[in-house]
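Quality-control log, excerpt.
Job 1 of 2 completed; input and output follow.
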Amino acid sequence: MEVTVAKSAGFCFGVKRAVEMVYQEAEKERKVYTLGPIIHNEQVVADLQQKGVGVLESVEDIKEEGITIIIRSHGVGRETLEALQKKNVQIVDATCPFVKKIHNIVQEKQQEGYGIIVVGNASHPEVEGICGWCKKECIVVETPQDAVKCTFPPGKKVCVVAQTTFNYKKFEDIVDILSKKSYDILIMNTICNATEERQTEAGTIARLSDAMIVIGGKHSSNTQKLYEICKAECLDTHFIQTLDDLDLNLFQSFRSVGITAGASTPNNIIKEVQSYVRKYEQ
């Protein structure tokens, strides 16, 4: 069996930066909490909890003063940030710089009179945060059907941005529909370069493989998108969180197996899966 591992698999820049910031804060004397799980990976969150890092789901859950609150890489909306600033806590902002850039774009363009369209998943924390920087006066579009239904007055200036981990092909399809409407449209492709690279490479490996393994947290949006891309190219695509989820018997008859992983998957988990599968490599 031939095994191909995606070079782009694993932590992206923003996630790596955020996780490192949490581990650094965990070494200090102060109590540390993240606002929501730092990343969508249960193993990393559990390891941080062992080091004393707690998870708070909202600003309202902050009951102590003098603690450290870490904003995760997904970022937060303006109201949430302002509510945090009113608390007597130390704020460590681990928002991915690429996400922060989108916050600035939507805030600036709305002030210039643009209508805002965010291409992404409305319930994803990154998208919720983006909407929070344009007073939630935006339209979230996730599917081509949503794009068809999207309505602004003819000639309206409209700025389109995207969730950094959105499926690039789907973004192109949605933009194609929006561009045919009679808007004065400004397209800002804010999908992270690492996401595009990861999705393209995953699709290529899946197309050339008999079976595909996608590693990532079950709540990870970008990993779910990788799974969708790989499944479209390779019927035998399997989504696992850790090596424990892998039934290698399913792969015995395959000549080639590809492996990729989401942006919130630690390198040690990828290596474990890779080493295990490679035992059967000829």
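Job 2 of 2 completed; input and output follow.
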Amino acid sequence: MIKNWRVLKEMLRLRFHGIMVFRLDFFGPFFVDGSLFLVQLMAFSAIYANVDTIGNWGEGEMMMYIGTYSLLNAINMTLFFFGINGIPRKVKSGELDLYLSKPISPLFRLSFEQISPGSIPLILMSLCIIGYGMQMTDSTYLEGEILAYCFWIVIMEILYYELEVLIRSISLFIVTTANIEQIEAAGLSLCMKLPGIAFYGMYKLIFYLILPYGIMATLPVQSMIGEMNGKLALYGITVVILFTILTAMVWKQGLKHYNSASS
């Protein structure tokens, strides 16, 4: 753990040094992510302009939901998206060899070597939207509810990370994962607009278990507004544990299956 922390600090130092050499790499994401955030809000306004409620959620809860999904995505973009997203390319080019030859977990290095501080403003804007949604509900939120929300944000961010790693680990077995990544993008786009409470039947099976994007922002909001019960909490934690095990298995088996491009 101490070794990983030292490596992480060194990677951060090198990353910030490299970004500041080319200032556009630092300030560019501020504009791109800020524009994406505004587009998301406009899409929300267009979709829900004539809708009063979805299930038992009003506009305030939906605003919290949009802010929560944006928060999860912003943390993902800041910490590990750009590193994890490069796995298929590194597998195809053989660059993964360099990671396997170093005395540190290759997945750890891949995850955090491309940290993007340009996405931090989106985190702050997401928190503002969540706070605005909380005000719209006209409810008083206790410290315990806020702590529960923070707990589920951490848990769901882990699930987000695992799903990204799992999908890109498939590149260790097949030639391209482009089609699978398109499914991922479609699922994320849909669940960013609709909360999990809107899914029923087959759709709930897909987005609550097979591709559990539907629970990532739904459960944190439910914990905040008092809709979380023991059964739902147990389900959410179980899904994260199952995907943790599945991701670890697929990654380890993938590394055994991996043939260097130079061999």
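Post-run check on job 2. The first helix runs from residue 2 to 21.
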